Amino acid sequence: MKEYIAQFILIVFSVVLGLFLSERIEERKKNREAEELLTTIVSEVKDNYQLLNYWVPYHQEIKKNLDSLSQEAVFIEAFKKDRYIFFETLFTRGTFMGRKPANDAWDIAKSHPLIVNINYDKYLILSRIYSQQELTFEPAPKAFELFNSKDVNSEENAATNLGLIADNLHELVAREKELMYYYKQAAEILNLKADKKADKEAVNK
Questions:
Q1: What mean pLDDT value characterizes the chain?
Q2: Which long-range contacts (CB under 8 A, 24 or more apart) does 29-36 make?
């Protein structure tokens, strides 16, 4: 009788141990896959961070120069004659921004079941970054839409429209400042570092 009991206990133990090991293996697999998912997102965030480190100071420079020029009668008169003096004078890099920060990895990750396995603090800061990122560049198309309007540099509207474009750039720079604040928070949590040597590479990708 004792022999049967011992065999029964051994079988139960083997089954429980097997289930335990199976669960542990599955848990490790999920954690590993979650880390791979996080690595992809972090790579995208790092690339975006480098991109912004390259463009944000430039946007601040444009805003500062426009604030000054929009008060100068000579510039306003030149703008009335040729709207493209705006670009020639302010856009010293030949463009406003090569491309916006990406969000492809984050969009894919949000619908992935393993997103729940990502550390809460990391998930929270990533969520803040991408939410702010979505809001940050909304003023830019408004400014360009206004610039492309038929009467943007008309005699009666030129000065006012320059002021409105400046307002949009102010809003953009303020939102970029907030976004960069989140990136600096993420730098500690996600071990991000802005690689200055990689800035131009990130811009041209």
A1: 85
A2: 30/114, 30/117, 31/117, 33/114, 33/117, 34/114, 34/115, 34/117, 34/118
